[in-house]
Every structure is written in C-alpha cells, then in structure tokens.
Amino acid sequence: VQRDLNIAVAEFTELKQQLERDTLVLSILKKLQEFDSAIKEYNTALLEKKYLTAAQQLEKARSNLKMLESRKGFELKILKALGTELTVQTQNMLYHLGEEWQKLAVWKLPPSKDSSSLESVVHSELHLRMVPLKEEDIAGPPVAAVLQAFAVLGELHTKLKAFGQLLLKYILKPLILYSSLQPVTEEQSDVFILRFKSKHPSLDHCSPMEVFDKIKLVFEVLHKYLLNVPLEQPEEDKKEHRVLLMELLGDMIWEDLSDCLIQNCLVNSIPTNSSKLEQYIEVIKSTEEFEKALKDMQFLKGDTTDLLKYARNVNSHFANKKCQDVIVAARNLMTSEIHNTVKITPDSGVALPKLPDPRAGHQLKAQKASNLVPNDVGSLENKTKLSQYTFSLPTCRISSSVEKLMELAYQTLLEATTSTDQCSVQLFYSVRNIFQLFYDVVPTYHKENLQKLPQLAAIHHNNCMYIAHHLLTLGHQFRYHLSNILCDGAATFVDLVPGFRRLGMECFLAQMRVQKGEILERLSSARNFSNMDDEENYCAANKAIRQVLHQLKRLGKVWQDVLPVTVYCKAMGTLLNTALVEIITRIAALEDISAEDADRLYSLCRTMVEEGPRVFTPLPEDDKNKKYQEEVPVYVQKWMMFKELMIILQANLQEIVDQWADGKGPLAAEFSAAEVKSLIRALFQNTERRAAALAKIK
C-alpha cells in the first residue's frame, strides 16, 4: 500500500507540473492570440481611418507584448519579431496621424528669414479644417479622433507643444507687439481661415482692452474648431472631470503669453500721471474679463494668474515707472550743455507749478495754539522790516537745464501730494535721488570743461547755489501734504544744502587757483623788475603787466552778467590782488634801484593802477560799472599798499619820512619799518641825510 501511495503521489506531482506548464502555455498562446487580434483590428481600423480605435488596439498589443516579455525563464524568439512589428506599426500609425494633423491645421508662414517683422508676420495664416460632428460616428469628429489617438500613443504633448510655439511666434506675440495688426476670420465651406490685416495705428501701443479682444478671438477660434476635445474618450462617470486639450495647451504656453502681455502691453498702459490712476480700473476689469473668458474655454485653470496680479498692483508699478521716468529725465538734463543759460533775478518768477499752502495741513494745530494765547497780549512783531530781497538769490545766470531740473523736482513732489502713501514715499525719495545724482554725475561728466573754461565753472557755481537755495525750503513747502510717514520731519532736503554749496565753491575755487597760477606765471617773465634801465628788461616787465591785465579783462568779460555782482567783485579783486602782491614783493626785494629804474617802475605801477579798476565790469551796462570800479580798494586788499609803493618810488627822503609820520602815517599802515628802510637803502645813496631818514623810520 505504501508503495502504491508513493507512486500515486509521484504521478500526481508530475500531472500537476504538466498542468501548470500547459496552463502557462495556454496563457501565453492566449496573449499571442490577443496580440494578433489587436494587430488585425488595428489594421482594419486604420484602413477605415478610425484612428482612436487603431491607437487603442496598438496599445493593447503593446501591453500584451510587455506581459509576455515579463515572463522570466520563458523566452520566445518570436517576441523579438513581434516587438519589431509593433514598432513598425506604431511608426506607420504616427505617420498617418501626422498626415491627418497637417490637413486639420495648415500653417502658411512667411518665407523670409526675418519672420518677426511686421511685413513678414502679416502674411501668416492658419487654416483649420471644419468637419461637422455626426451622431452615428462613434469615434467623434476627425479632429477629436486624431488628437485622442496621439494622446493614446503618447505623442500628443510633442505635437501640441510644436503647435503652441508656432501659435505664439506667428499669431499671439505679433498681435501683442504690433498695434496695427488685426486678426481676420474667414469661414469657407470646409475650412476656417485665421489671417491678419494691417491698419495705420493711431497710437504706438494698443490699449490692453484691444489686445485682450484680439487674443480672445484667436482662442475662441481654436476652442471651436480644434481644441475643444477631451484628452481621453469620455466615459459616463467622468464627464465632469475630463481634461480638454485646450487646458493642455494653456499649461504649455500661458506663462510665455502672460509674460509677453505684461512686458509689451500692461507695462505701456501704466499711467504716467496719478490723476489717470482711477481710469486704470477699466484695465483691471478688462483683465479679469479676459481671464474669465479663457477659464470658460478651459485654457486657464481657476487660480489668479500673474497677469491679473500685475494689473491689480498698478499703484506699485505706477510709482516704479514714475520714479524711473523722473530719474531718466533728470539724468538727461544733467548731461546736457551747461552753457545754455537763463537769468535769475530776485524779482523773476521761476516757472514752477502752483505750490500747496504749507500751512493747509496744519490748520487745526494752529487753531489750538492760538487758543492758548491770551487776547490782551500785544504784538511782539518788530517794526523794522527786512528787505523783501533779504533771503532772495542774487541776480546771476544759471543753466536752463538746472532750472528745468528744479521744475521737475517741484512737479514730482506736487504729484506725490496726490498719490497713495507708498507712491508718495517713493516719489519723495526719487527727488532726493535726483539731487544726489546731480552731485555725483555733473562734476564727473563735465569735469574737463569745468577745469578748462572759467565761464562754465562760474555757471556751475551758480547752479549749485541755486539748487542749495531751493533745497532750504523745498521739504518745508510740501511737508504737510506728503504721506504721514514723511510728515514727522523726514521730508527734508536741508541736509543736502552744505554739500551743494561746497560743490559749487570747490569748483569755482579750483578755477581761481588756475587763474592765479597763470597770473604768477606771466609775472615770472618780468625778470624780477630789476635793472629797468635796460630796455630789454623793461619791455619784458611791461609785457608781463599787459598780459596780466589782458587776462583779467578777458575773465571780467567771461564772468560778466554770469556771477552775482558781489561774487564777481570778490573774485576779480582777489586775482588783481594776487598780481599786486607779486609786484610789490619783487620790487621790495630789490637791493639797488637807480633813479631811472624808479621812474620806469613807477610807470609800470601806474599802468596797473589806471588799468586795474577797468577789469571790474560785472554788468553789461558800462555806466553802472563805474560804482564798482571806484570801490576797488574794498575788493583789492593790497590796493593802498601798492599806491604807497608808487609814492615811495617818486618821493624824496623827507616826503617818505612825512608819510611814515613816526609810525602813524599812511605809509606805516601798509609797510613795516624794515620794508621801508630796505626801499630807502635801494633808492638812495648812503649819505648823512639817508642815515638821518633811516633813524626816523622805527
């Protein structure tokens, strides 16, 4: 019994293994049969142009083949051949689908290489084939069948991306970039044509509303004739959640389209004036409607996009754009020519906008303060009135560009008073940036001219003083009309005033040093004013004197009607004084002066005294300059000393002693005892009379 049992178990095990092998063989044969059936059905469907069915059958065959290949230890040579066949049929299917796709959406593109120009783009066309939906056609319209077949085969993304890029390049972006382009639709019996026409634009840029309408028209056409197709064939329980190809296209191109709309449409529509900000609500509204229309077509998903966020954030963009425009305008003014000038007088009203009353925002505080003052307190006002011009800028000439720069600053601050808090603060600091930019740009950009040309140095000096003059009160004028953040003392420009004054003075003083250097260089050719009895030496000294006077006269003309009168007189007085001090020093250092030398030196000095005052011509009218020419001793520190030197050159010993008057005379006021003694020793021979005179000089 035991032996029979063992035999039965062995037979059972063998039969079980054989059954498993046969079952496996049957399942493999079944899969092979399913593969074969799928390929046959695929071929039938392909011939009948039922592309979706054909694609589904191909995928069924592919899944069967994958299952067969996954069986380990059971490898069939036929599988390799089946894999090759499947690849061939897939490529064949894709070829047919490609042919159909090219018929459904036909692009007619410009032949030229520069395909982005208006002339080329206007020739672009998109032809969409129209096939009505037939109820008895299970696979749906050819459009749906072709696109769904692509989806089944995993090639839809590639096709749609290529289509999306063409759509962006040849239709959507040109419609945004060129305001003259208009989309035109033409419906024929079996084809729908989308093309362009060009009209003469009234403006450089289209309004966002017009652009949105053009883009919307394109998407409506695509939605109606091409992309209103579900990614998969709809099932009864999934009708609500099906993904349309329109949504797929939206995911691919919306980011690029949105960026293009922002950079080339919305940016240009940002107002440049705060009064137009309210009108921008229309743009925001049209952006919302545009997005809603795209969502209805399922091109966009439900979230708010960057496009709408950008439109709604208009206040920030307005402030940024305004500040950028202000800085660009300011820099253009700073780099324009300095020598184009306008005359500023205490009476002249600079063309500035009407400024708000600085007390208007402070009335309540003023009323409260006035209530605290008893009514019986008398007026503490001083009866002596200051001149109305006390705090005025003196008459001078400034660059017209600087006057415009100041107007720009006032207008920007005026705009800040009517703007939102954020914008107000940005505009205020933009105005500060204007002046800081001036401080850095002008001395660098015009450096060479400011060093070489005395007139430009004087104008730049005036420009800086003019700006500093306005900066003193600029913040105060707007203080109570700007954002609350700025009202607590932050709205000021006073801190910039010392820097501008220093900038103007340093430039002008540098020019003064250049002029002083030239004067001393010319006088260095006078051969120390020694041995004037030598004709050659006298001519050299005379020439040097004449050159100095010519230089001063030229400067007097260049600075005439440019510098304020007081600055002009101080500058010319300082330069003339430099010449006189040099002449006095050289003559006083001479050890021996003959009578002829003295006469010639006196002649040279007389030339300086006669011609020197004539270099003072601050005003164009000669008769008005006499007053300043008579006041030369006020501006030329060593003028009286120079005249005393002339007296010494012509005087005898007794006259010199009388002029000294025991250290109380006019000579003693200008020269020290040692200097007078040195001149006496140089002028007179060593005699008892000279010794007596020298003894009295102490």
From TrEMBL:
<dbReference type="GO" id="GO:0005789">
    <property type="term" value="C:endoplasmic reticulum membrane"/>
</dbReference>
<feature type="domain" description="Centromere/kinetochore protein zw10 N-terminal">
    <location>
        <begin position="1"/>
        <end position="39"/>
    </location>
</feature>
<comment type="subunit">
    <text>Interacts with NBAS and KNTC1/ROD; the interactions are mutually exclusive and indicative for its association in two different vesicle tethering complexes. Component of the RZZ complex composed of KNTC1/ROD, ZW10 and ZWILCH. Component of the NRZ complex composed of NBAS, ZW10 and RINT1/TIP20L; NRZ associates with SNAREs STX18, USE1L, BNIP1/SEC20L and SEC22B (the assembly has been described as syntaxin 18 complex). Interacts directly with RINT1/TIP20L bound to BNIP1/SEC20L. Interacts with C19orf25 and ZWINT. Interacts with ZFYVE1.</text>
</comment>
<keyword id="KW-0206">Cytoskeleton</keyword>
<dbReference type="Pfam" id="PF22766">
    <property type="entry name" value="ZW10_C2"/>
</dbReference>
<dbReference type="InterPro" id="IPR009361">
    <property type="entry name" value="Zw10_N"/>
</dbReference>
<dbReference type="Pfam" id="PF20666">
    <property type="entry name" value="ZW10_C"/>
</dbReference>
<keyword id="KW-0007">Acetylation</keyword>
<feature type="domain" description="ZW10 C-terminal helical">
    <location>
        <begin position="543"/>
        <end position="697"/>
    </location>
</feature>
<dbReference type="InterPro" id="IPR048344">
    <property type="entry name" value="Zw10_middle"/>
</dbReference>
<keyword id="KW-0131">Cell cycle</keyword>
<keyword id="KW-0498">Mitosis</keyword>
<keyword id="KW-0813">Transport</keyword>
<keyword id="KW-0137">Centromere</keyword>
<keyword id="KW-0472">Membrane</keyword>
<keyword id="KW-0653">Protein transport</keyword>
<keyword id="KW-0256">Endoplasmic reticulum</keyword>
<dbReference type="GO" id="GO:1990423">
    <property type="term" value="C:RZZ complex"/>
</dbReference>
<keyword id="KW-0995">Kinetochore</keyword>
<dbReference type="InterPro" id="IPR046362">
    <property type="entry name" value="Zw10/DSL1_C_sf"/>
</dbReference>
<dbReference type="InterPro" id="IPR048343">
    <property type="entry name" value="ZW10_C"/>
</dbReference>
<keyword id="KW-0132">Cell division</keyword>
<dbReference type="GO" id="GO:0051301">
    <property type="term" value="P:cell division"/>
</dbReference>
<dbReference type="GO" id="GO:0005634">
    <property type="term" value="C:nucleus"/>
</dbReference>
<dbReference type="Pfam" id="PF06248">
    <property type="entry name" value="Zw10_N"/>
</dbReference>
<dbReference type="GO" id="GO:0006888">
    <property type="term" value="P:endoplasmic reticulum to Golgi vesicle-mediated transport"/>
</dbReference>
<feature type="domain" description="Centromere/kinetochore protein zw10 C-terminal">
    <location>
        <begin position="391"/>
        <end position="521"/>
    </location>
</feature>
<dbReference type="InterPro" id="IPR055148">
    <property type="entry name" value="ZW10_C_2"/>
</dbReference>
<feature type="domain" description="Centromere/kinetochore protein zw10 middle">
    <location>
        <begin position="97"/>
        <end position="334"/>
    </location>
</feature>
<dbReference type="GO" id="GO:0015031">
    <property type="term" value="P:protein transport"/>
</dbReference>
<keyword id="KW-0931">ER-Golgi transport</keyword>
<dbReference type="GO" id="GO:0005819">
    <property type="term" value="C:spindle"/>
</dbReference>
<dbReference type="Pfam" id="PF20665">
    <property type="entry name" value="Zw10_middle"/>
</dbReference>
<comment type="similarity">
    <text>Belongs to the ZW10 family.</text>
</comment>
<dbReference type="GO" id="GO:0007094">
    <property type="term" value="P:mitotic spindle assembly checkpoint signaling"/>
</dbReference>
<keyword id="KW-0963">Cytoplasm</keyword>
<keyword id="KW-0597">Phosphoprotein</keyword>
<protein>
    <recommendedName>
        <fullName>Centromere/kinetochore protein zw10 homolog</fullName>
    </recommendedName>
</protein>
<keyword id="KW-0158">Chromosome</keyword>
<keyword id="KW-0175">Coiled coil</keyword>
